[in-house]
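Why do we care about 3D structure at all? Because function follows from shape, and shape follows, mostly, from sequence. That is the central idea of this module. The next example makes it concrete: a single protein chain, its amino acid sequence, and then its structure expressed as tokens.
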Amino acid sequence: MAGTKTLLRALTGETLDVPPIWMMRQAGRYLPEYRATRAKAGDFLSLCYNPELAAEVTLQPIRRYGFDAAILFADILLVPQALGADLWFVTGEGPRLSTITTPEDVTALKPLSDIHETLNPIYETVRILAQELPAETTLIGFAGAPWTVATYMIAGRGTPDQGPAHALMQADRVTFEALLHRITEATIDYLSCQIDAGAEVVKLFDSWAGSLKGEDFTKYALDPARQIIAALKAKHPGIPVIAFPREAGDHYIGFAKATGADCVALDNSVSADWAARNVQVDGCVQGNLAPGHMVTGGQALVDETKRIVAAFSKGPHIFNLGHGITPDADPDNVQRMIDAVRG
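And the structure:
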């Protein structure tokens, strides 16, 4: 079936008449069926660690919209939890973690051999999905990139400027780099196990890559992505990898060649025309409709969707948003977007 899956064809560099479509956070709070399943689970983490319910919410947008890919329902902060950090979610505010800021904190993290005890339910979710997804639908696994995961582990929460991580980087680079190394190793193991369980593609989310400048971007966004991709491809020859260094700006240029990524996902701070000239020349791109269109809808949604498809029509392209769909999105607007791409 791999030869007929449009998303896998795009990732091998094929230019298709109609680009495959999926959406970041396509299983989520904008869907009433998701909210009902989450209520049944009790809380967000319980949903992530319940393979049957996590598979169910992953399948919901596939049943409703017929996307070309399903992305595993999980969270990038499960890796820090598996490494031994305390993790909990505050309603209306988001995740909280115990902080990792000293050499002793890094040393106290669990060895790689122990992380899978926590993460085994995620692999079971992947196995369920590999059996239950429609034959034409590609299964995407994912993890957070080391820099982005480190920003949460150092601050204990999300921050607007990733200031605590930058501060530790400047004050104690040895500790900072030791933490990044541990996350990188755990991420390789985690994604490899997802692939073993049935993931056909994996994606690396570096949501805060844009706050790294100059040489720091190379050392802490590009180099870890290159290490992870090289390790995965050595162990799983042919596995496609999508990299998302969000808000990388000019650093998007050459990122695929430098890291070995098969596709670079683009946020909506860069234009599709610019990306076609500067990024798509190296291979497949993914993106990059502004998520706000899923809220406002109307003719502007249709026009912008068609403009992006046209801009990327001369090369391999996976249609997606520039970031995750928001909880206030209208489900009907998702269908309008799909109709505009396919119609």
